[in-house]
Amino acid sequence: MKRREFLVHLISELSSFLLQGQPRKMVISLHQEADGIHLAVIDDRARSEVEIKAIERALNASRRPELAGYYGQMAGHDLLGSARLNLVGWQIKHADVLKNPGGGVMLNLWIGGEDFEYTKFSIDPEDEKEKEK
Amino acid sequence: MALRDRILTQFLTATILLLLLFGISADGPAVALEGFWRLQSSPARLLSDYTAMQGTGAALLNAAAVGIIGWLFAMLNGISLSGPTIAAVFTMIGFALFGKTPLNCIPIMAGVSLSALIVRKKPREYLLIGMFGTALGPLVSFVAFEMGLTPALALPVSLAVGLAVGIVLPPLAIAMLHLHQGYNLYNIGLTAGFIGLFAASLPSAGGKSIASISSWGTAADPWLFLFIPLLSLIAAGMAFICCGKKSWNEFLSILKLPGRLPSDFCELSGPGGALLNAGILGMLYSAYVAIVGAPFNGPVIGGLMTLMGFAFFGKHPRNVIPVFLGLLAAALLFGKTLNESWVILAFLFGTALAPIAGEFGPGIGILAGFLHLVLVERSGTWHGGMNLYNNGFAGGLTATLIVSVIEWYRTSIER
């Protein structure tokens, strides 16, 4: 799949998930580099720790190439019913879920090839965590 | 090896050993092997009950061989056992009692792998399409043994047809998935039915009619009668041995899931709960088959095996019961005989529509079951029996109808 189409599907599934919670605000931020992508989606809906853990678990689901190559094609496309973050999780390198100080969450997705190291990015998830503290 | 891998490996090993043990015991090894050999060149289109055509032993050996091939295919691709792979191997095993053989499965799986390489993907990304895609095995057997080709031509031409079908399966499977949005568990059934429409039309265009096959075993064979209840007990027993009381809690959490594709119950809940779910569904539906007096023959055992396989990947009692009630309502309203071949198969395979009940509620699930029975009686003739997953084909059309209406309503109504 072309990078553009792939991103459209991921953004669509993530947006669908966050919009299910009927937030007042939602921000999508994309940072592309040659060997990888950082996608951040932010909303303002307060969530419990259990909900945040479930989001983190779904987005960091173990890599499932046999599912990603086939059923992963439904991500951001087949939106009737509940949004499914695991469709996204199978296709990305790593995800961080941070609680925003003003309520809501920030989903940080790190996408890249086999050699992609998200720590090499100019946006460091550790910095984001520090900022939150 | 992780706990999930270990449990699923043990369960699948037990299943294949049970098939081999029953296969050799039923008719003796010599008769079973001879029959197994003859099955490879037999017609495979619906409805070819291998237990009636070559005996119980031959059919069970064939099922074990096809199951081993499916498992090896996953291993060669570096994919460990999970909910979807168990569903795929069990589906292959089940349909090897009435249509799949090693000879007609391998070219399709090779074609799907080739399709992945054509678009520079790894074959493992299309692994499940390859495994489920063996639904079109009868097409390979048809070209090889029913078209009257000379032996020198039959094998290469059927191989080429198998490869070609395998190459076009992935793009079609993905397109079909979008039609019903994951609410028909047998997506390849819809895909294979679509291909089957063209495949069955070609011989007709050339002036060759496709004769229907109707082989349906009615003998009461104790080996076949015992197989699924015993396998169900093994599944439930293994659930409690491996995970204890946790299995029950995992099973209860499975009941809350809609089951829409792709729902790997082993990952979403746990392998113990998924095994228990398989045991419960296997027992419940075996009881139903016995109550209505249907024979435990190849197709029926195939249906039960597929049901148990999908107990790891989308089906559970709470989402299959509404579909069952819908099927029952349609059968009673239209005066169908409950133990007639296509009716009992519709009850077993119609559970492909379980996610509709799981997501939209029991009322819509009942409607889905009702519509499925109405359609499936006719859909088999459309593809000349080339697509083994005829219920998946009808289920896909039913799911598309229902999902389209719900989506239109939800996206059009002003809130």
Could you walk me through the main structural features you see in this protein, from its secondary elements to its overall organization?
With 133 residues, chain A is of the alpha+beta class. Chain A has a single domain, classed as Heat Shock Protein 90 (2-Layer Sandwich), CATH 3.30.565. In chain A, 35% of the residues lie in helices and 23% in strands. Chain A contains 5 helices and 4 strands, in the order αββαααββα. Chain A has a 4-stranded antiparallel sheet with strand order 1-2-4-3, with helices on both faces. In chain A, a hairpin with a 2-residue loop joins β1 and β2. The longest helix of chain A is centred in the first third of the chain and has 18 residues. Chain A starts with a helix and ends with a helix. The model of chain A has no long low-confidence stretch (mean pLDDT 83). By secondary structure, chain B is mainly α. Chain B has a domain of 203 residues. Chain B is built from 20 helices and no strands. Classes of the chains: A alpha+beta (133), B mainly alpha (415). At the A-B interface, α3 of A face α7, α9 and α20 of B.
CATH-level-2 architecture of chain A: 2-Layer Sandwich
Tell me the β content of chain B. under 5%
CATH topology of chain A: Heat Shock Protein 90
Structural class of chain B: mainly alpha
SSE topology sketch:
The complex is a heterodimer of chains A (133) and B (415).
Chain A: H1 3-20, E1 26-33, E2 36-43, H2 49-59, H3 65-68, H4 85-89, E3 94-99, E4 105-112, H5 125-132
Antiparallel strand pairs in A: 1-2, 2-4, 3-4
Chain B: H1 3-27, H2 29-39, H3 50-53, H4 56-76, H5 83-95, H6 102-118, H7 127-132, H8 137-145, H9 151-180, H10 187-205, H11 222-243, H12 246-254, H13 265-268, H14 271-292, H15 298-309, H16 317-333, H17 341-349, H18 354-360, H19 362-382, H20 390-412
Helix pairs in contact in B: 1-2, 1-4, 1-11, 2-4, 4-5, 4-6, 5-15, 6-8, 6-9, 8-9, 9-10, 10-20, 11-14, 11-15, 12-14, 14-15, 15-17, 16-18, 16-19, 17-19, 18-19, 19-20
